[in-house]
Amino acid sequence: MTLNPDMGALDDLATFARIEVESRDVEPWADLLRHLYMEDGALSLEAALWLVALYNTYDSLGSACSVFARWPSPHELLTAADFPDSAQYECTQERRNLRGGLVLTRHASYGALVMGGDGTQAYWLGQGIPQPDVTTDCCDTGGAEAAWEPMTRHLRRVWGVGRQAAFEWAEFLAKVVGMRLTAPHAQLWESEGPRRSLQRLYGNPDPDRAWLDEAALECRAWLLSQGIDLSWEDFETIICDFNVMRDGRYYPGRHLAALREEIDGVAESALRAALEHAWEQVVPPEWQCIDPGIDKAKLPVYRDSGLIRSSA
Question: Domains in the chain: how many in total?
Fold first, then answer.
C-alpha cells in the first residue's frame, strides 16, 4: 500500500495541531459544557444531557441555550403549547437538514424515545451501550471503544441524525458527562473533510477503505512523534480543519471566535453567568480576548502566505 507523504504539509499540520490543542480551539463547546457540569456543578446530569442534545440539534450554543431556557427538558418541550416556537431558532450550516421546521421532527423523535423508557435521557442513552447497568446513570456503563459503534447506531435512531451528527453526539457525551465512549477509528470512509485531507496529505485521489485506515494510522503516529497525542475524535476534527485552512476557510481560533459570539448572544441569566465563568476557566488567558465572530480577513492567511496564526 503506497503512501506518498507531503512532508511540508505534515510539518504544518503538526504546527497547526499543537496550536489548536494548546488554545483549546479543537472543540471548545464540549470543553465549556463539561466545565459547567463536571467542575462548576451548574448543571444536573439530565440538564447537561439536554444541552448536549440541543447543541447537537442546532449546532449553535446560542440556539441551544435559548431553547434550554424556555423548555428545560425534552418532556417540557414536547408537551408545551408553544412547542412549534423551537423551530424559530437558528440551525447552522452543519444542521441545514433540520431547517424549514424539520427540527420539530427531530425534537419529537428524541422526546418519544426518551419518554418511551423511564422518562430520563440517561436511561435511554444508556441503552446504546452494550449490556448497560440501568440501575446507575449512563456514565458508569460499557467499555469505551466497544461501546462507540453501538452508541452511534443508537443515536441514529433519532430522526435526522446522520453519521456526522451521531459521531459528534457520542463525542460530546464522552467529553461533557464522562460517558465511557471512545472512537476506535475516525470512520474516515464515511466522512468527507477528513478523508479529503488525508488524500491530499498522502497523495491518493481515489482511496479505498484500507488505504484510508493506513493513512490515518500513519498520520496519527506522525503527530504523536511530534508530541501531539490525539484521540480519534480530535484527530478527525484537526485534519478536517487543517484541510479547510489550506483552502482559505479556517485559522486557529476560529472555533473560539464563533463560541465567543454565541455566548455574547445568550440572554443575561444564571446560565449566561455560568458560561462566562466557564470561558474564563477553560480558555487560556492569551486567547480569552479574541474578538467575537469569525474574522473573514484571517481565513485566507495560510493559503496565501503559509503563515499559521498562533495568537488571538
Answer: 2
